[in-house]
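@channel sequence for tomorrow's demo:
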Amino acid sequence: MLNKLLSNLAVDPEPFALCMLDCGWRVCLPAPPVPIFHFVLQGHGVVCDPDDLCTAVAPLSATIVPAGMPHKLETNGKIDNELRIDKPPQDPGICQIIAGTGDEHDLIVACGRINARYGDAIGLFDHLHSVLTVDMSKIPNIRSLFDQLLEEQLKGAPGYELIIASLMTQIIVHMFRLLEEESQDSLPWLAALQDVRLARAIDSIFENPGANHSVESLAEEAGMSRSAFAEHFSAAFSRSPINFVNHVRMERAGKMLDKGTSSIDQVANHVGFASRSHFSQSFKKHTGQSPAEYRVH
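structure tokens (generated this afternoon):
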């Protein structure tokens, strides 16, 4: 199932900044609206959550911080100074966040927000509740991939966003291979997608979101009792099966509206709505915009 997960992977990274810390410094970062990715280029330190639970980081380690979690990057040892960042940098190229005054920094971390999804609906890090760190030093070319990514961002040549997304996708693929090997329990959906029973139900939803899905029909697809299926599904994806079905339908509808090749009635029908008005109500509840407003935007 990991192959299917990775073949349906879509990664959309935002520009990276370089956080450069001298000995004895910390950088306090605001709560990101989406998960943030930290990649250690040099040095050792820690990433601390709001409860001061700290995770050690080392060269070529990757850390995912959940959306909505303010956090801190710190060098090892006693902390004497602090730099607070209120909002992410918007400068073109590669912004440098420098904590300290020295020319040689103890800790250099590439930091960037990232949206990684499976299919139309599963945000791979959306339900992460704690900081996740993966040692990627075993991957022979991992530093080269990240160096290429930063170089593309720095040059900003035509099409650089596509190249960055491709390079970041490779990095995320390596990360998930390592997570599978280490049997991490931080991402319950990862184990769920490797359960062939739940995977059959998920495939059925993605392949035909407009079908008349119900908890009973999906449980039958999975070969499980209704109660066991609903319990396992909700535990893995932090939402009920029907809520998930509706989420996939709305995400698929958004993609179809973006393409602009189908009428709103055709989109509604494709995602399982016989009534255009019912579809419009559901879509506006999901996105905050009517289908017509969304298409214009």
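heads up for whoever presents: The domain at 2-185 is CATH 2.60.120.280 (Jelly Rolls).
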